[in-house]
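ugh finaly. both done.
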Amino acid sequence: MAASTLTEVARLAGVSPATASRVLNGSARKPGPGVSERVRQAAETLGYIPNAQAQALAKSSSGLVGLIVHDIADPYFSAIARGVQDVAREQHKVVLLATTGGTPADEKEAVAAFAARRADAIVIAGSRSSRPEDQQGNAELAAELDRYCRNGGHVGVVGQAIVGAGALDGYHLVEVPNEQLAAELAGRLVASHSGDFVIVGGPEGLITSDDRIRGFQSGLAAAGRPAAEVLRASFNRAGGYEAGLELAQRIQDARESGEAREGDKPNLCIFAANDVMAIGAAAALRSQGFRIPRDALIAGFDDIETLRDFRPGLSTVRLPLEEIGRLATLSTVGPAGPGEGDFDHDTGPAVTGQVTLRRSTEWTP
């Protein structure tokens, strides 16, 4: 059966379509109570569903917040999403979700879809890319965001600035000090580990991973230690598992050659550029008969909620992920109103993290 129309509602209520629209779409210009009641009764009788875009035009607000993440199944993004949802609920708004796989081209399509639905704000969480293959996608994403902001939209970005984006009204950046925190982690680990370090990172050009790798290397250098070898893999659990298999083979080769013996203090400490990669690497080592921290030490980054069930406890850098989601959303739809308050395109709200050492980097004879 065809959906009821605004014209049919107006006819049943005995008013003009314009009057019916003002009642049902939330216009500031409203007819008298008796007319409004007749229109609402007619709409209920016919089962009429108001047009959300028409309501957005009438109210200058759609009540929608768009959230763009790489993978909602990743605990890093789901924690940020909870923070976004909390603020949206406080502001009586609804969150629309888009997952992109991490490419700026897909993010551009998501921004365009949210803009077409007149979303009041858009939050983008996920690493930026400086890879040559993403150059065109970066340019198109920046242009789409420029168009959205110039039409009154507000954007909160987590992590790093959108590549190529200008200083736009309505654009807000929540920076995460990945490099600084990774350097602090390295400084803490070298205090108790005299052996080798290996970094398991994402593809080169993935800015979050590159920042964390660079920070860890600078922390090693500051302690007078040589640079760590970097193994590149997918920036997820599968990538960590792949790298972990390679490292398990190295441990096995060292034992077979007599360079290391079972029961000795591990010579290898692994820094994975995020926790899910660390979990994957530890699982790969376990599949080959090795254990953390008996045979190798390992640390991650993010302190995702999943670590509550990970044994041994994983050393990591704790980020306030839900609070980051809140900050990004408040920067766009906060109580002071979009674009107002203490949020600035250049500096953004402050985010801090904390190095947290646990059993995975503590070897005992």
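ok and the 2nd:
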Amino acid sequence: MSEQQLSHPFERLTPSFLMDAVETQGFWCDGRTFPLNSYENRVYQVGIEEQEPLIAKFYRPQRWSREQILEEHQFSMELAEQELPVVTPLSNSAGETLFDYEGFMFALFPRRGGHAPELDNMDNLFILGRLLGRMHRVGSSRPFEHRPALTSQSFGHDSFALLSEQFIPKALKPAYDSVAKDLLQAVDEILHSCRDLPMIRVHGDCHSGNMLWRDDAPHFVDFDDARMAPAMQDIWMLLSGNRHDQTCQLAEIVDGYNEFHDFPVRELRLIEVLRSLRIMHYSAWLARRWDDPAFPHSFSWFNTERYWGEHVLELREQMALLDEPVLNLI
């Protein structure tokens, strides 16, 4: 198959291609490659002769610049230097962490085991609060220079424009346009009222799948979505359930967080704002990646009339949540 016939650049990542790339960094592969659960980039466990397997991450072409990826690496290593449990990229003899092979940028990581944390366990939330407080103390020390900020334009308005113009079924377009515009107006009004809140370096995608629980503690992985954002971006995803549940969860997180950094109480108003923007951005992310063969295969429910009908209902629910009182600290 010629390169022109390939439906997506990632299809070039055959086992032999992976091993050839890894071996440019002085490792001798033993022939074992295993794809891991990743869609934005491609991540593989690669067996190494007489050593522990490595994790090879091949970055999606044209998503991040070299400077932006290196800034991600630098941030994770800065956290590790402060003894935070994060998985950092390996450096070669020249001190490089980002490598090039046949048009791809890739990085190598040590393999780390673990399982997703139980977020309904209050002790776990206290521990996570402590770690986020430590992480945000480092993250607030200086800004990213190359990585973008989380804004209502990039996560909300740009998502709306793409979906409304190219993906929403005609029968649902009036309902979608109406609720999405109203939601974005409400989001913008809240953000305007909070415009003096600080933006710091955050993990950016702090859900349970990006935390490996082992040795009675979580280890943060995958800083691919790190950006400038309110600290609350890393906190709200730990909350779930009804209002009472979330209030109790938040109390544990705050107690742990305050041991190392001042909890951003004023940002509690942003919880549903950030949730709304993530919902819109997630749908737009699937839409933007629909030409990647892995996406129709793995997300077959996307871009169906049923999906868009449920999406409209979800946005309406967010409108109602934005009108509710802010969660209180207890």
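summary for the 2nd one i guess: Residues 122-322 form a domain with the Transferase(Phosphotransferase); domain 1 fold (CATH 1.10.510.10).
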